[in-house]
Amino acid sequence: MNFYASLPITLLGPTGSRESKLSIGNSLSGITFAGLSSGIDTDSIISRLLQLEVAPIQRLQAQQNQISTRIDALGQLKGRLTSLSSIAGALNTASAFNQVSVTSSAPEVASVSISGEALPSLFNLTVSKLAQAHKIGSTAQASVSEALNLAGTFVVNGKSVTVSSTDTLTSVAQKINGTNSGVTASVLNGGAGNSYISISANGTGAQSKIQLADLTGSIVQTLGLVTGAATPRESITNGYTSAGFKSSTEKLSTVWAVSGLGTKNFEINGVAVSIDPDNQNLQEIANAINAAGTGANATVRTVTENNVTSYRLDLTGATTFTDTDGILTAMGVLQRDYGSQLVAAQDSAYTLDGISMTSKSNTVTTAIPGVTFTLLKANETTPEKSTITVKGDKEAVKSKIKQFGDAVNAVNDFIKSASAFDKDTFATGPLFGDNVARQIEGQIGTMLFNNVPGLTGNYTNLAALGFSYNTDGKMVVDDAQLSKALDEDPSAVNKIFRAMGSTSSDQLSFISSTDKTIGSGGGVYQVNITQLAAQSAYKSEMVQTQVSTGTEKLTFSGALFGNTNYDVIVAIGNNVDATISQLNNDAKLKDLIVASKDVDGSLVITTKKYGSNTNFTVVSDKAAATDNSGIGTSSAGTYTTGVDVAGTINGELATGAGQFLTGKSGNANTDGLQVRYTGNTLGLIGNVTLTRGIGAQMQSLIGTYTDITSGLMSTNDKELQAQIDSIEERIKRIQDSANSHATELRTKFAAMEQAISSMQQQQSQLAAMMRR
């Protein structure tokens, strides 16, 4: 009985509720007799009898706790493995070894930062102008809060502002700000008769020049914001452009939210043109200009900036304008002088190594690939100077490589700690004797100092880079040896960590591989092409020759457009060249297709990409025309279907997508190996050689353990949880048996008490009879 001394136990009642928690003593002497009839403490007797029956529960619960602790420890190990995989993955990229730093010799002139992959270089920078945001001001007004007694509508950057006679300088500013037209209006209260309104462009650069014109009434003229004659506002190649409009299909008066504008007249190149903004949209206005025979070509251009699309009227070949009714000024083709130009719209102007450049912003991101610099100081007479130096950052590369060693140590240290055995107390860690932990430790240790298959020369493994184990069993890196390797052969250091491929043909490119691509032995794969990739194309069935008014809607659809319709409105008055220009400059189409003219003068549309996913259709609402009044694009035109490349890699089937060929899932050797073929011959066209460095190998190895569905650790966790669940079932069976036995004993003791009570009643009756 001593083994069970003070053993805690919980007995469950018939409903499963916890009734009592008892402990058994060293003997049964603690039993008391307090039954109502027998004087026996039956509950105590039952508890003591059942305590031995449920005693195994404590042992089973201890087993559960041990398994749970083991699962927790494996979870912590998995976290460290995931971290090691992430660091190994970072070393399996080109950017890890293209670490550079950038400095500016005069940070007060230009600040610099790395923004992408940059090549070591040195640039001499001179700055003559900083980009400025346009700002204009009014003449002095009576007050910021008194009614202006002005009424009408003016346009700012293509957006209309309607003013009533009760509006004040302040409310006019508020209305301008409510247009979201890319400007900010402010008021300045200098006292009675000395109040002003100013308008500032939100962006910098010459193109931030504010477009401002009266449409009805003379609001901006009266406020002194504009004055003088109108001249072309913004130049484009061989012409001028308008302000941006939110729609090319809505009537111009609808875009401006005004009505009753009536017919408006103007001249281009001395030729009169009449338009009706109440009944014509931007495209129809372009058609009217083309139909007038001005010698200028009017087209509607789609512009997308900062995810906002607008439409501009471009006038090429236009040299002179007479804006009789002010409509060209309202549209932003022309602009009157500004009453008070507080800050001129200006691009930054600078040179890099003597090459003159400009930018609409002071922050320049494209001039030096991978480097962003911000211009801070300029002098037009004596340009400010700075030297921008981009150099390889060997210390940053070394830091990333050393992080790999630290991550390996973190895994090994945890396994060592969690697998510890205390020879004095015999206490063990939660992973003591764990097969998974031992397997992980062994496989990582074996991989680390093997030669990378396929590499030759002085640097083929981590030991050559200065990696080793110290006397404490920790991985360390000899800094001098690592520096020497990076100086002597940075490409070899790169290959020690990365999965890399090379090809035997300029027309064949290695794109990528996966953990399932076998690269052992410096795997060489033959690529056999059985079908060439082809672009989708369409050739119109007629040549546009007749110049007439009206518009033609081209509706594009098909896989190239996500099987949704995309409409483009072109002028029938265009010639093919003008339509080609419009299609090639369309905000969406320019990234998808190239329009050109065939030798017979017909329109040809070809996709930029290759493959079956580039198939498209284009249908014209003028397709049925017989007088050549439109482009004549219809489903009856000549289509060329896009085709995917087809072939094998290393004799195994591959999947084609455009010009890309990828080893099929499940292939023994080429699963996930992707190449690109840009040539035009069939058959065996070259080889791909693949090497898989330590970073790639480590990612693959850890994936076999940590994969959420098929990883060994995930499978092991499920097995351990199944053990916990099985033990829980055993505990439940013991508890259920004890509860059933308790019920049985209570029933028997209750029957005994009832019998004793009955006998006591009979005894009392007999005793009473004898006393008589």
Q: Can you give a write-up of this model?
A:
The protein contains 14 helices and 43 strands. The strands form 12 sheets. Strands 29-43-31-39-40-41-42-30 form an 8-stranded antiparallel sheet. β33 (551-557) and β34 (566-571) form a beta hairpin. The chain starts with 7 loop residues before the first strand and ends with a helix.
Comma- or semicolon-separated keywords:
29% helix, 5-stranded antiparallel beta sheet, 772 residues
Output the structural class: alpha+beta
Strand order of the largest sheet: 29-43-31-39-40-41-42-30
The number of helical elements comes to 14
What kind of sheet is the major sheet? 8 strands, antiparallel
Helix amount, in percent?
25-40%
> What's the total count of β strands?
43
Report the end-to-end length measured between terminal Cα atoms.
Answer: 53 Å
Describe the oligomeric state of these chains in a short phrase.
Answer: single chain
- Overall mean pLDDT stands at 87
Question: Which spans of ≥5 residues are poorly predicted at pLDDT below 50?
Answer: 1-34, 624-629
What would you report as the Rg, rounded to the nearest angstrom?
Answer: 42 Å
Strand percent estimate: 25-35%
The backbone outline, from C-alpha atoms, is extended
